[in-house]
Amino acid sequence: MAPSSAPEAGQRAVVTVITERLLLRPVRTGDVPAVTRLWTDPEVRLHLGGPVAEQVVRIRQRRIVGAPGVHAVVRASDGVLLGLVTVEAEAREGEAEVSYQFLPEHWGRGYAREAVAAAVDRALQSVPSVVAVTQEANVRSRRLLEALGMAHAESFVEFDAHQVLYRKRV
């Protein structure tokens, strides 16, 4: 099921970032089923604390549409939602933090790298640095962040798991 790239009734056509293959735009009501899969898929959530509890999913479903800093990553050619990229200003000790999750059927095609790079580059136009945190065990995510020129800044334990913080400065 591919969500339409056209805005739904009552919603503005806002595209935050355009890349070669992708649109990063606010989350729309029609995106909620795919976004819910991101929150509940065990493979997606392997390094994110596991699937989100049903009652939390229901709360998130009400808040995600149009949420500031949350970008639906949509393939420009057909409007399919691939994942989410979030940039939260002043999230971690005053620094902007980027986070992302993509549906497994879209892994390995460079979409996450393209979307996260665009989001980080956009953020660095207005902030001096952007950080990202991933579990030490999440080798794919670590490779992605390193490919974007983000440098390992520190390691620590959080949420009962070894974490790695990466940083990119202007």
Describe this structure in words.
This protein has 170 residues and is α+β, with helices and mostly antiparallel strands. It has one domain (17-169): Aminopeptidase. It is 24% helix and 34% strand. The protein has helices spanning 32-40, 54-63, 111-123, 139-147, and strands at 17-18, 22-26, 70-75, 81-92, 95-102, 129-135, 151-158, 161-169. An eight-stranded mixed sheet has the order 1-2-3-4-5-6-8-7, sandwiched between helices. It starts with 16 loop residues before the first strand and ends with a strand. Its EC number is 2.3.-.-.
Number-wise, the strands total 8
CATH topology: Aminopeptidase
* Topology order in helix (H) and strand (E) letters: EEHHEEEHEHEE
CATH architecture: 3-Layer(aba) Sandwich
The order of strands across the largest sheet is 1-2-3-4-5-6-8-7
Subunit arrangement of the protein = single chain
Shape: globular
Q: Beta-sheet strand percentage?
A: 25-35%
CATH class: Alpha Beta
Radius of gyration, in Å, reads 15 Å
Number of helices: 4
* CATH superfamily descriptor: Gcn5-related N-acetyltransferase (GNAT)
Give the CA-CA distance, first to last residue: 39 Å
Largest sheet: 8 strands, mixed
GO molecular function, one term: acyltransferase activity
InterPro entries: Acyl_CoA_acyltransferase, GNAT_dom, N-acetyltransferase
Keywords: Acyltransferase, Transferase
Enzyme class: transferase
